[in-house]
Design goal:
The complex is a heterodimer of chains A (284) and B (503). Chain A contains nine helices and no strands. Chain A has 284 residues and is mainly alpha-helical. Chain A has two domains: 127 residues, Four Helix Bundle (Hemerythrin (Met), subunit A), CATH 1.20.120; 143 residues. The longest helix of chain B has 25 residues. In chain B, the strands form five sheets. In chain B, strands 12, 13, 16, 17, 18, 19 and 20 form a seven-stranded antiparallel beta sheet that branches. In chain B, strands 2-3-22-23-1-24 form a six-stranded antiparallel beta sheet, sandwiched between helices. In chain B, strands 4, 9, 10, 11 and 21 form a five-stranded antiparallel beta sheet that branches. Chain B has four domains: 82 residues, no CATH class; 123 residues, ACT domain (Alpha-Beta Plaits, 2-Layer Sandwich), CATH 3.30.70; 138 residues, no CATH class; 109 residues, no CATH class. The chains are: A mainly alpha (284), B alpha+beta (503). Chains A and B meet through helix 7 and helix 8 of A and helix 2, helix 8, strand 7, strand 10 and strand 21 of B.
């Protein structure tokens, strides 16, 4: 039995329940739903960590894979990305107690773990020589942490757009009172991005340093690199528009959402453009 | 003109342009990344190709105009940083500095009005005289990590000072942007002075690099420059691969390790020697030799043929007599990944996924048509006619038992003198980012007005680049500790714009 998959399925079940609780909380004022969501997410996170632990255990059965993280395959990457998303969400939630954010962020964790289970192959393979380097424990981990944070910012952005519509409509519903103010959501969206943007750029630069030690070039314009750069440019645009032009609210959120679309394309779409630097080719 | 160039709006536009064309380059096949795909596209769409080639779209990232946009952006960032002050939202400055004391007294009320514009405020009355209160408050702020600057002090009347913490944040933006420009400069240095050359070397052989390079170390170059030697001493360089090793993961054809025991020579002089493998290059004074790829080119030391119980070892292109028969057999060609293209023998790649060997049999002067045997599929066999066309043949009574191929090691030689500069820029960028985004600037304005011998009205105003919620809690703590420091017993008001009462 593959315990990595078994525990991941358990985590998926908890994430799904937590998402359901988060949606109930959108319409039901009772705070017990949000505290249930928080607990369910915590349980899911624990199972997910266990799954990742088993993943490492299986991965390290091949001596050449020791002691690298199992994030070279599509399965490992999706699982780790969802884990990071939930972990970032857990941190934000425990600090800000927004409750409401779950409905907009947790679906990503469900989609991520779900597609890992349904579409990706959990079979363990030996790392190709290019990936047998300590950078594999740093470069993708840092980048996926930033992706996870951007996913959370996207959730906040969706909440802001909903709140905006609620306030503009003649009869604001229950939701309007549940959601934090537009200003607060805008500020949170900004603060997550401001935290994640340096992480993203540093991850890209570290990739360049790794590429230099593996192939003698810092930058090679392969589609993955290029799209990561585009993502960074879009978020840099967002930050400048905010700092300098004082852009706030809906328009700022649209720009940040464009950034997240680029994140998704960098993570997924690029694999269909070119076999280089992807999950489908085993890396390299 | 400079107005447009130094505007941040224009820089955002340039960034969007770079993002757009970068995206185009990932969709249109690039000669630099995927030459086969690009050539296939060019053959399929001749009309578009004319148009795209004119704008250099098949090598977009190195086209003059794309590099031009990058350079323009670098220049613009510098211009922006020179002309524009860093954005400083939230700072409401005090009224203009006043020079003489009479004016100060007149403007005291204005100072208080300015304080009331700060995002956070607190007011209380100290049980200390003005002098003591000022010293105590400044001392307290200093202990809290604030740099204190006195605005004015009028003995017996009033005093004001500003405390700032994490002032470095303001420079973070400069540092990060300069780092970005330094990275671009490093990339420019690479494209001007650096080079990349692919050198495929057969195991046991050597190959001369096309590019000559100066193998001396930097200090040698500097020394020789001063002793009047020529500026460059470019010499031909040979790369030797004495032994090439490849290991596969058990049960697969996925390589787990490949390595070359390599030597780099300039004439008789040994420049460097190392077993190089992926991620572990050989460094010769900055020129680095990387294990990039490997492959089978069609050469082999021998193939082993199995005829019933007997085995026969055939070196390449050496006819060998088959014992007990009048036949002579010769193995002349090997294909590492056999496939049939347009009816002819071909190889799909250079790795040994499906090796096949061509055999020729002869009796005296008579030669049979060549026969292709596949190592992994002993039942499949092809004959080749004079035009090279293949046709299926019945399975022969002999099989390929083993092939001992001579592999070539793909060694990539790269010289990038810009790399240390890129790393320096990256470090500046990182430090700038940390200062800009993770170190939040705080400013506290303190106004003390004497109200009798042992009494002093204290007004605090504060601003921070931190989030409102986070700084509110921090300011509350600071105001409370300052209040006890100044021996105030007021149940003071802590206000935020708009004023909120706090117990």
């Amino acid at each position: 039995m593959n315990y990595e998959v078994v525990f991941l399925k358990g985590a998926l079940a908890f994430y799904t329940l937590a998402t359901a609780a988060a949606f109930v909380y959108l319409y039901n004022k009772d705070d017990k739903w949000s505290s249930w969501m928080f607990r369910l997410v915590g349980a899911g996170l624990a199972l997910h960590l266990a799954s990742f632990g088993f993943g490492m255990h299986y991965f390290w059965k091949i001596p050449d894979n020791r002691y690298y993280f199992p994030i070279n395959s599509f399965f490992g990457a999706l699982s780790f990305l969802s884990l990071a998303t939930v972990a970032v969400f857990f941190l934000i939630e425990s600090r800000h107690q927004l409750g409401i954010l779950g409905a907009f962020v947790l679906p990503w964790a469900v989609i991520g773990t779900g597609s890992a289970i349904i579409f990706a192959n959990p079979a363990v393979e030996g790392l190709v020589p290019a990936l047998q380097n300590y950078w594999i424990n740093i470069h993708p981990v840092i980048l996926m942490t930033s992706y996870a944070a951007f996913g959370n910012a996207f959730g906040v952005g969706v909440a802001l757009l909903i709140q905006e519509r609620q306030i503009k409509s003649r009869k604001p519903g229950e939701l309007c009172y549940r959601l934090p103010s537009i200003e607060e959501l805008d500020n949170l969206n900004y603060r997550i991005i401001v935290w994640a943007f340096p992480v993203l750029t540093v991850g890209i630069i570290m990739g360049g340093i790794w590429a230099y030690s593996a192939w003698g070039r810092f930058w090679g314009w392969d589609p993955k690199e290029t799209w990561a750069l585009i993502t960074a440019l879009v978020y840099a645009g967002y930050l400048h528009m905010r700092f300098v032009k004082g852009l706030r609210g809906k328009k700022a959120v649209y720009v940040s959402m464009l950034g997240f679309a680029c994140v998704l394309f960098t993570f997924l779409g690029v694999n269909f453009l070119s076999p280089l630097h992807g999950y489908l080719s085993g890396g390299g | 003109m400079t107005r447009i160039l130094r505007s941040i709006r224009f820089n955002i536009f340039l960034g969007a342009l770079i993002a757009f064309f970068s995206a185009v380059g990932t969709i249109l096949p690039q000669l630099g990344q995927e030459p086969e795909k690009a050539n296939a596209f060019m053959q399929a769409h001749p009309l578009w190709t004319k148009f795209f080639s004119f704008f250099g779209l098949f090598d977009l990232y190195h086209s003059w105009w794309f590099l031009g946009i990058l350079a323009l952006m670098a220049v613009d960032i510098v211009l922006c940083k020179l002309w524009n002050k860093p954005p400083d939202v939230g700072v409401v400055s005090l009224p203009p500095e006043l020079t003489n004391e009479e004016d100060l007294e007149k403007h005291l009320d204005k100072k208080e009005a300015a304080l009331k514009l700060k995002p956070f405020q607190a007011f209380f009355t100290s049980k200390l005289g003005l002098n003591e209160a000022s010293k105590a408050a400044q001392g307290h702020l200093k202990r809290e990590g604030y740099a204190v600057k006195e605005e004015f002090f009028l003995p017996g009347t009033a005093g004001a000072f500003v405390g700032t913490r994490h002032r470095i944040q303001r420079w973070g933006s400069y540092f990060a942007h300069i780092g970005l420009v330094v990275i671009l400069v490093g990339a420019l240095i690479r494209s001007v002075f650096g080079f990349v050359e692919m050198v495929p070397v057969l195991e046991g052989g050597s190959r001369r690099m096309q590019r000559l390079f100066d193998p001396r170390s930097f200090s040698e170059r500097v020394q020789q420059l001063f002793w009047g030697h020529p500026w460059t001493m470019k010499e031909p360089v040979d790369v030797y691969v004495d032994k090439f090793t490849i290991e596969y993961y058990p049960g697969t054809m996925d390589p787990k390790l490949f390595a070359s025991d390599a030597r780099v020579m300039s004439g008789d002089q040994l420049l460097g020697k190392k077993v190089i493998r992926v991620n572990h290059p050989l460094d010769v004074n900055g020129v680095r030799f990387y294990q990039a790829s490997w492959g089978a080119g069609g050469m082999f030391r021998s193939v082993t043929l199995k005829l019933g119980k007997e085995t026969l070892k055939l070196p390449q292109r050496v006819p060998v007599k088959i014992p007990g028969t009048p036949f002579t057999v010769e193995a002349d060609m090997m294909l590492p990944n056999f496939t049939v293209t347009n009816g002819q023998a071909d190889t799909a790649s250079l790795d040994l996924k499906n090796p096949a060997v061509r055999l020729m049999f002869s009796v005296g002067p008579h030669q049979t048509s060549p026969l292709w045997l596949l190592k992994n599929y002993p039942d499949i066999c092809f004959t080749e006619d004079a035009q090279g066309q293949l046709s299926h043949a019945p399975a022969p009574p002999f099989q390929l038992a083993a092939i001992d191929p001579i592999l070539f090691s793909g060694i990539q030689v790269a010289y990038d003198p810009g790399f240390p500069i890129v790393v320096l820029g990256a470090l500046m960028w990182l430090l700038g980012m940390i200062a800009l985004f993770y170190m939040h600037r705080r400013r506290v304005w303190v106004l003390l007005e004497s109200a009798g011998e042992n009494s002093c009205r204290t007004s605090l105003g504060a601003w921070s680049s931190r989030g409102t919620r986070e700084y509110e809690a921090e300011f509350r703590l600071l105001a409370k500790s300052l209040r006890s420091e100044l021996k105030s017993e007021d149940n003071f008001q802590l206000t935020e714009n708009p004023i909120v009462e706090v117990p």
